[in-house]
Amino acid sequence: MDRLRSPRTGGLLALALFLAVIPLFLPNSFYFEVAVRAGLNAIVCIGLNLLIGYAGQISLGHAGFLGIGAYTSAILTASYGWPPLAAMAVGATLAGLLAFVVARPVLKLKGHYLAMATLGLGIIIAIVINSESGLTGGPDGMSLESLYLFGLKVKGEKAWYGLVGVLLLATAWLALNLIESPIGRALRAIHGSEVGAQVVGVDTTRYKVLVFTLSAVLASLAGSLGAHYGGFVSPSGVGFIKSIELVTMVVLGGMASTFGAVVGAVLLTVLPQLLTALHDYEHMVFGAILMLTMIFMPRGLVPTLVGLFAGRKDEGEGAP
Q1: In this structure, which of 88, 109, 304, 316 has its CB flanked by the most CB atoms within 10 Å?
Q2: HSE-up (13 A, CA, CB side) for residue 177
Q3: DSSP conformation letters of the chain
Q4: Which residues, other chains included, contact 144 with Cβ-Cβ below 8 Å and sequence gap of 6+?
Q5: In this structure, what are the phi and psi dihedrals at residue 176, rounded to the nearest 5 degrees?
Q6: CA separation for the pair 287, 175 (Å, rounded)
Q7: Tens of pLDDT along the chain (320 residues)?
Q8: Separation between Cα atoms, residue 275 and residue 53, nearest integer Å
Q9: Residue 248 and residue 45: Cα distance in Å, rounded?
């Protein structure tokens, strides 16, 4: 029974049940599309949460890694006829290599200096995508084919929902196991006090580079999947605003909470669709909801709710 209450077992089972039940309440393909987009954002946010929530390292440039995955898949499959899976692997490798190379100098910075450096990285990637129009299509974007897995085309919203749902579960499983491993304990030590972690022998640079690279790879894979799903990529989806949106999802759901990252991604993907009925007041209501949530739940939705249900004053403790 105790095992079922743990995030790794009970939390994953709850997420799997949620993903299995949701299609029963989706009336048409539009809602399936929103669900698929929410799942892709959740995959990125789980990786970003490892970096921000557990290692305490802010990144405002993760949309750039998402763009590397999307455009690598688009260029290699549409222009050079590569198989989609091979193109996705190349995109993930490129994003991982770039993150690995820039992580050491960038992650030496602290606070707003680190935020500015990662913001600059994302902006540079967006500028390259915009300016290399001969390769990327520039501001007009470029089209690409649907995803083929083992010779079979992933066709239809339900098939995409199933694929993204399985990958989301796998990503959550990976993150939860990482958090419970010595790597996770080292990340939490770095977040608590980097100097203190170094004093007890934690190689802080190694772990920060590792988690930055892993989060970049996850963003790239989600970007590749999103590109194949939509059949089109453009610079508008990989710019500064997208990076801010991803960080907001993590903060809203609850930092240092894997399921908080999922909840934040789902809410900020679904909420704008629900608020369209308010027409001209949509953005005002959206901003007000975010402000009120962060004022009354500063630790994010999931850690706060977990704390309330568990009757603890320290909401962060035990948040999955």
Answers
A1: 88
A2: 6
A3: -HHHHSIIIIIHHHHHHHHHHGGGG--SHHHHHHHHHHHHHHHHHHHHHIIIIIT----S-HHHHHHHHHHHHHIIIIIT---HHHHHHHHHHHHHHHHHHHHHHHTTS-HHHHHHHHHHHHHHHHHHHHH-HHHH-GGG-EE-PPPEETTEE--SHHHHHHHHHHHHHHHHHHHHHHHHSHHHHHHHHHHH-HHHHHHTT--HHHHHHHHHHHHHHHHHHHHHHHHHHHTEE-GGGGSHHHHHHHHHHHHHH-TT-HHHHHHHHHHHHHHHHHGGGGGGGHHHHHHHHHHHHHHH-TT-HHHHHHHHHHT-S-TTTT--
A4: 73, 74, 77, 78, 227, 228, 231, 232, 233
A5: -65, -40
A6: 30
A7: 566 566 667 889 999 999 999 999 988 899 999 999 999 999 999 999 999 999 999 899 999 999 999 999 999 999 999 999 999 999 999 999 999 999 988 888 887 888 889 999 999 999 999 998 888 988 889 998 888 887 888 888 899 999 999 999 999 999 999 999 999 999 999 999 989 999 988 999 999 999 999 999 999 999 999 999 999 999 988 888 899 889 999 998 988 899 999 999 999 999 888 877 777 777 787 778 878 887 888 888 898 888 887 765 544 444 55
A8: 29
A9: 10
Contact 69, 91 (CB under 8 A): yes
Residue corresponding to tokens 């990662």: 118
φ, ψ at 122 (rounded to 5°) = -65, -40
